[in-house]
Amino acid sequence: MKWNLRWAAAKRDIWRPTQLQVAFREVGFTPSLSKVAALWSGKPVTVRLEDLDLICAALQCTVADLMEAEPVAAAEGRPESEQRAVGDGGPARPIPRPGNGGTRRPLPPN
To answer: If you average pLDDT over residues 73-90, what whole number do you get?
Structure first.
């Protein structure tokens, strides 16, 4: 499962990775800026349980709060019960045209 560190940080009025790093230092957690940037971007990062406790202390949240999904802005004129995730029901994914040799190019990665 993916962490939503940015949503937990936004609740504490932290909007940049450098601000997050300062909040971490306040509780005695001193990761490198590259690790903070990876946490911020949602890339998979190995974190020790002790460090996870410090992250939660810095953001004044629980581990469950880090798993909380970021709310989606309400679609105009659409009640919340009819909201769909991005990409649901949209047009099919485009398929690349064959190249010069008549072979198909592979689809781009997701």
So the answer is: 54
For residue 21, give the amino acid letter: Q
Structure tokens at 47: 């974190």
Query: Both ends of the chain: CA-CA distance in Å?
Result: 17
Percentage, residues of the chain above pLDDT 70: 65
Residue 12: how many CA atoms within 13 Å on its side-chain side? 22
User: For 94, left (φ over 0), alpha (ψ -120 to 50), or beta?
Assistant: beta
- Phi-psi map region of 106: left, alpha, beta (phi>0 left; psi -120 to 50 alpha): beta
Q: Exposed, middle or buried by CB within 10 Å (0-12, 13-18, 19+), for 64?
A: exposed
Where does residue 98 fall: left (phi above 0), alpha (psi -120 to 50 degrees), or beta otherwise?
Answer: beta
